[in-house]
Design goal:
By secondary structure, this protein is mainly alpha-helical. Helix 1 packs across helix 7. Helix content is 83%, strand content 0%. It is globular and about 55 Å long.
Length: 212
């Protein structure tokens, strides 16, 4: 029994470290994106696009996923029902902000869909809408397939949104405004934040399955 207990203790410690790093990295990514928008000499709709999508995807929707992580510091002591309420508040608010930010950019930029960033942004927006609808349906049904659809759509949404953010950091305007080192660091932090959030989602779902 002792080796098993030590293995579990090591696993919990590892997940705690991953969760902490994920929070730090997500905060850094959000600050980099917001700082870029604040000092970038661009149009107001570009600034609104960055602010809304960053807060929607990186801050609210990522934290909504982390809410159910048993190793998450700020939600660890909460009851499941309380976590569920917070998850949906963050999910709905984040989705609405991200969709609004995407629409603002699409309406004001005629060649938006001529770049990988713009195309992937559209995909992320559509997945966000699907995840939101699936989540709302999931509130009123206990069907496992609906919950699985919501979880898959949510993960795909975050993947497409974070890759889209990486493409934004990789743009020549960002590299020109700062330098290649800062751009590469921003991309690396975005990837780390995505992996950490997805690991959290996988851990949460695994714990949920094991308790059944």
């Amino acid at each position: 029994m002792r080796p098993h207990s030590e293995e579990r203790s090591s696993f919990i410690m590892c997940m705690n470290v991953i969760n902490s790093i994920t929070h730090w990295v997500l905060g850094a990514v959000a600050m980099i994106a917001i700082t870029l928008a604040a000092i970038f000499p661009g149009s107001s709709h570009f600034i609104q696009h960055v602010y809304l999508c960053t807060i929607g995807y990186v801050v609210l929707m990522a934290q909504a996923i982390l809410t159910f992580n048993p190793n998450n510091g700020w939600s660890r002591s909460m009851r499941y029902q309380d976590k569920k309420v917070i998850h949906w508040v963050m999910q709905i608010a984040g989705s609405l902000l991200a969709i609004t930010g995407s629409i603002i950019r699409m309406v004001n930029l005629t060649n938006n869909f001529q770049s990988p960033h713009g195309i992937l942004g559209l995909i992320a927006m559509l997945l966000t809408a699907i995840s939101l609808v699936g989540g709302i349906i999931g509130l009123y049904t206990k069907t496992a397939a609906i919950k699985l659809l919501h979880a898959c759509a949510g993960s795909l949404t975050l993947i497409s949104a974070f890759i889209c953010l990486c493409l934004g950091f990789d743009k020549s305007v960002f590299r020109g405004l700062f330098n290649d080192t800062v751009a590469d660091l921003a991309i690396a932090l975005t990837v780390i934040g995505l992996i950490g959030t997805l690991c959290s989602a996988a851990n949460s779902n695994l714990n949920r399955v094991m308790k059944r």
